[in-house]
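Hi C.,

You asked whether I'd gotten around to modeling the 171-residue construct. I have! Everything is below, sequence then structure, no commentary in between.
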Amino acid sequence: GWHAGTSVRRIGTGSPRWREASPAHVRRELLWQDRRVRYYADLHIHSKYSRACSRDCDIEHLTWWARRKGITLVGTGDFTHPAWFAHLREVLEPAEPGLFRLRPDHELGGSTTSTGDVRFMLSVEISTIYKYAERTRKVHHLCYVPDFAAAEEFNRRLGRIGNLGSDGRPI
């Protein structure tokens, strides 16, 4: 039934369930919604080891620019390149599961407009080239792994069929 101070509201985000909700329940629901994590992300990045990329495309500069632009999640790109992989292991430390952050001792000086946390996800772009109907086709795959052990295994398997050190974007 109806009681003073209650109203019927749609609660949650799943199936359309209607139920009686007290103002306290609505406040709890709104607080829960405020705790959702939002990321402004750029997950398609290349390193300084990829053709036509700046020598400043390192994790330190990517962190600085991400803060300046309000981006909170950035792909590392190119983890298949041996030198870049070594750099990633040196400058990143685990944050949340599957995410990494720049070690404090590698932070660049200088001011940015934001002081927010920047997280990194281990990522790489792999290009698949094949022929179909007398035409060459190219498909680019963006691959993400949760940790360095998975990236090592990915690199080991891919290294059996290609030269990972030639460019940041293996073909």
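If it helps when you're writing up: The radius of gyration is 22 Å.

Thanks,
B.
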